[in-house]
Design a protein that fits this description.
Helix content: 25-40%
CATH topology: Rossmann fold
Shape: globular
Strand content: 25-35%
Distance between the termini: 30 Å
Strand order of the largest sheet: 3-2-1-4-5-9-8
CATH class: Alpha Beta
Order of helices and strands: HHHEHEHEEHEEEHEE
Largest sheet: 7 strands, mixed
Number of helices: 7
CATH superfamily: Vaccinia Virus protein VP39
CATH architecture: 3-Layer(aba) Sandwich
């Protein structure tokens, strides 16, 4: 059963912070990451992409502007509105209940979204991403991790405070490998204020 209370708090936190998030500058390494994924999509001839957890839409706008047929999505209504203001096709949906037919997309992209799911729900979100991918399709999964824990971040600047689920590299790779082929994994160090965390970048492939 999905955690409805967790989702309600998360939805409220992101609805309350959409203007703050729109003003954030994208980190240089994030730009490198999405460009590398785009290059791989070009190599395999991918045309359609679903973004899960788009926020106010900086990555979706990038992929749209590069010519991909994009549908973007977020749990928070205000984020979806922010995406629509930029001409994006944006839906409100839950990563664990994606309402598209099987084998719909050439690619799926999700950065710092699935880390808000309890670990017991994480495999369900992976299964949903796999279901809507075409055989051989690519999935970019990026999120913060390192310490193996899950809890509400009590000192969060967002209100209400958000829930986070962090995996060690070993555990994350183990969970993901049950549903996808791992094309590439790398660990990206972060700034001093998040010294206990790093960014886990995975490019995955749905088995043909």
């Amino acid at each position: 059963m999905l955690d409805k209370a967790l989702r309600a708090a998360l939805r409220q936190a992101y609805n309350n912070s959409v203007d703050y998030r729109r003003a954030l500058a994208l980190r240089d390494w994030r730009e490198v990451e999405r460009r590398a994924f785009l290059d791989q999509l070009h190599q395999v001839g991918a045309l359609s992409l679903l973004e899960i957890g788009a926020g106010p839409g900086p990555d979706s706008r990038f992929f749209r502007d590069q010519g991909l047929k994009l549908i973007t999505s977020d749990l928070a209504l205000e984020n979806a509105f922010a995406c629509r203001e930029q001409g994006l096709l944006a839906l409100v949906l839950d990563a664990c209940a994606i309402p598209f037919a099987a084998n719909r997309f050439d690619a799926v992209y999700s950065a710092n979204c699935l880390l808000h799911l309890p670990k017991r729900e994480f495999p369900l979100a992976l299964a949903q991403a796999s279901r809507v991918l075409k055989p051989g399709g690519r999935f970019y999964l990026g999120q913060y991790g390192g310490p193996d824990r899950e809890s509400v971040w009590e000192d969060d600047v967002y209100q209400p405070p958000r829930f986070f689920s962090f995996f060690s590299d070993e555990k994350l790779l183990g969970v993901v490998a049950k549903q996808f082929e791992i094309v590439n994994f790398k660990s990206i160090p972060l700034e001093e204020d998040t010294a206990t965390l790093h960014f886990q970048s995975l490019t995955l492939r749905k088995a043909a």
